[in-house]
Amino acid sequence: NLGNNSNRSGIFIQSGADNAAGTNSVIDIYDGDATLQGQVTFTSGTVTYGAFTANHDVSVPDAYNAGGYPYGTLMCITSVGIRDNMQRAITYTAEACKAGDAKKILGAYAGKYHDRPNLHQVYILGDGHIKVNGEGGNISIGDAIALSSTEGIGMKATTSGMSIGIAQDNISFAAPDE
User: Fold this and answer.
1) Which of 14, 70, 79, 83 could covalently link to 89 via disulfide, CB atoms 3.0 to 4.6 Å apart?
2) Over the stretch 64-79, which tens digit does the pLDDT of each residue have?
3) pLDDT score, position 87
4) 115-149: b or e for each residue (b if 16 or more CB lie within 10 Å)?
């Protein structure tokens, strides 16, 4: 749909029940051995992406580019830019959060794109995981997770303020640095 105009449509998918009743599968996503990985569905006007995780692409310091960070490391923004003078094409540079960086947390490290130079994923919403320690005590389902004093690691929040997630599992620690 060329035309150099924002009124040109992209992909058009028509599927499911005429009245949108029930759970209608629009896209099923499978891996190499045909194991279902996720779906795009709709029901009565609501579109669902499951399991859903949003990410931002980031560049990291050269020392971490090749191997990345451990999955779940809390990442903080070190700089923000605009790509190609496009107002909404934000670029981020990020590194493992350090104590005092709580206001700069972007999300949790997820992985590196192997086909793009210095481009990594940081999960910001959804089904990601955060590395934690026992600095704030044992963690219970529903506890807020905040940045600990250990680089890139979260903990049970002990004060109100900036948090990065909500615990979905109970975790007991034998020692605070565990």
Assistant:
1) 83
2) 999 999 999 999 999 9
3) 77
4) eeeeebbbbbeeebebbbbbbbeebeeebbbbbbe
How many C-beta atoms surround the C-beta of residue 158 within 10 A? 13
Q: What's the mean pLDDT in 21-32?
A: 93
Question: Rounded to an integer, what distance in angstroms lies between the CA atom of residue 133 and that of residue 155?
Answer: 5
**Encoded tokens for 94:** 């990020």
Residues 104 and 161 sit within 8 Å (Cβ to Cβ): no
Distance of CA 116 to the CA centre of its chain: 18
Closest to 106 measured CA to CA, from 116, 117, 119, 95: 95
Task: Give tens-digit pLDDT for 105-163.
Answer: 999 999 999 899 999 999 999 888 999 999 999 999 999 999 999 999 999 999 988 89
Positive/negative CA dihedral, 106, 108, 112, 118: positive
Q: Which pTM was predicted?
A: 0.83
